[in-house]
Recover the amino acids of this structure.
């Protein structure tokens, strides 16, 4: 027979084991069960309805429905894109990004334009300032042409003495230099006239756009500034 002390110890160990088992069962009961995996379903190219507990290879090019255990829709698994389809999607995304950037740029330019020119008088003053810069350059070219003409007259008068003979090298060099300088000034005058027309076109396009913006058109709603770069509309520099 066991002594009273041994019997008591055995009972204590059994009681402790029972308590540990009960505690473990209680903890297990309180731990939530893992969520059930979804059910993938689709109809393949042969018309068969397929189901699986993971994405279905036969339907990789199609959308696959992911169902809960009760048959309700949990999500849609998108099709796997081919290399060509991925390229097309990336191209669409690039085009969309470019359009967004173009619109943002148009908004910025329109706001800058209205800030720079709050009314028609301010725009007219800017136009005249830009044109005056070129007009002054044209006057300087015209004055230089007159000077060269005055310098050329005595040289030609002297050349009359050598009508049927070769000109002296010095005189010929002076006449050639005079003509080259005059040709350069004539080319400058022609370029300055082109610049006058360019500036006028820019300000004409701007004014047409500004009138619409002043009338309430939202910035960016008029599209790109056709025929002119609004950020480059500044007086010509020479």
């Amino acid at each position: 027979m066991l002594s009273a002390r041994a019997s008591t110890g055995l009972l204590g160990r059994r009681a402790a084991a029972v308590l540990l088992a009960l505690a473990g069962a209680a903890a297990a009961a309180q731990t939530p069960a893992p969520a059930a995996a979804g059910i993938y379903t689709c109809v393949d190219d042969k018309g068969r309805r397929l189901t699986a507990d993971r994405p279905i290879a036969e339907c990789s090019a199609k959308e696959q429905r992911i169902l809960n255990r009760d048959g309700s829709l949990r999500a849609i698994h998108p099709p796997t894109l081919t290399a060509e389809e991925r390229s097309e999607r990336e191209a669409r995304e690039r085009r969309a990004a470019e359009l967004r950037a173009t619109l943002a740029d148009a908004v910025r330019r329109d706001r800058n334009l209205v800030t720079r020119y709050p009314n028609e008088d301010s725009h007219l003053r800017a136009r005249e300032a830009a044109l005056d810069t070129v007009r002054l350059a044209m006057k300087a070219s015209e004055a230089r042409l007159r000077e060269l003409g005055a310098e050329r007259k005595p040289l030609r008068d002297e050349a009359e003495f050598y009508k049927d003979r070769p000109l002296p090298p010095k005189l010929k060099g002076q006449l050639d230099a005079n003509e080259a300088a005059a040709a350069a000034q004539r080319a400058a005058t022609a370029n300055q006239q082109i610049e006058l027309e360019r500036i006028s076109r820019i300000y004409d396009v701007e004014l047409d756009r500004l009138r619409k913006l002043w009338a309430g058109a939202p910035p960016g709603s008029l599209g790109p500034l056709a025929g002119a770069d609004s950020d480059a509309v500044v007086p010509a520099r020479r």
Notes: Helices lie at 4-30, 83-116, 120-159, 169-214. The radius of gyration is 45 Å.
